[in-house]
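Entry: YiaAB two helix domain-containing protein
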Amino acid sequence: MIHRQIQRPTGAFIGASWLALAAGVIAFVVGLWNASMALNEKGYYFTVLMYGLFSAVSLQKSVRDRLEGVPVTGLYYGLCWVSLGLCVMLLAIGLWNATLALSEKGFYAMAFLLALFGSVAVQKNVRDLALLGDSHDAREPVAES
């Protein structure tokens, strides 16, 4: 057994992670709210955002599970990668074909990527804190491969 040191995330990193997630999601949703596009287009972009957040968190969890020796099937791991790639591709295709100004397209792309980054960072922090419990210096046994 290898003992791996789990570091407690700093308050600054936790705050920055939540801020990135909130800023990305809020900016994207406010942009949709104010956009002069049909309701079905707004629904499409909102669904891609939610799908992207879920797939990014699922992929991050699967990667971390594998690193920690938690069994993750190859099929699920592959589906996580395909899912994340698919939602990024759906956003890119949607924006490419949208009748929006280039600045608006860039805004949606950056807000989307910021939200994805934030979701992964928040999930990492939540998991680290859950593994640590109340301890500041915990060691977790990890099986050798």
